[in-house]
Design goal:
It is built from 3 helices and 9 strands; from the N terminus they run αβαββαββββββ. It is of the alpha+beta class. The chain is elongated.
Length: about 140
């Protein structure tokens, strides 16, 4: 009985330790990706959301959005930061087409993206980008 309790106790510690280490490694990886992307795009605009990674099979990648692009507007509505981007996306439904205005190679481009369903939540629209706004932790939409 004592051995079983000891094994269970060690298992809990190992699980918690693995979870903490995994989160830490994920944050470090995101910071490295942000640094690498920022090196590609050294002069970031004051407004907008920097695309740090893409879901390769996601709607943004299919539409031509690339790593290093800065999303500055959705359907002509400018986004200042990640919160604005999320709030604008929540106004749409799965299957809607949105027009993203991007900064790429010091020029402005527009792409049309058909929104998918967010993995695990079929009612929430999904753009398929991992992003960061200046001074924020990377996240995904």
């Amino acid at each position: 009985m004592v051995a079983a309790l000891l094994c269970a106790w060690c298992g809990v510690f190992a699980g918690v330790g693995g979870w903490v280490a995994g989160r830490d490694m994920g944050r470090r990886e995101a910071r490295l990706e942000l640094s690498a992307t920022a090196a590609v795009q050294p002069v970031l605009p004051e407004l907008g959301v920097l695309v740090t990674r893409l879901d390769r099979s996601g709607p943004a990648a299919r539409a031509g959005v690339a790593r290093g692009d800065v999303i500055v507007a959705i359907d002509g509505v400018y986004v200042q930061d990640a919160r604005d981007l999320r709030d604008q996306l929540l106004r749409y439904r799965v299957g809607d087409t949105v027009r993203l205005t991007l900064l790429r190679d010091r020029g402005e481009q527009t792409v049309n993206v058909v929104l998918d369903a967010f993995p695990g939540n079929p009612r929430m629209p999904y753009l398929g980008v991992y992003y960061t706004a200046r001074g924020e932790e990377p996240a995904d939409l």
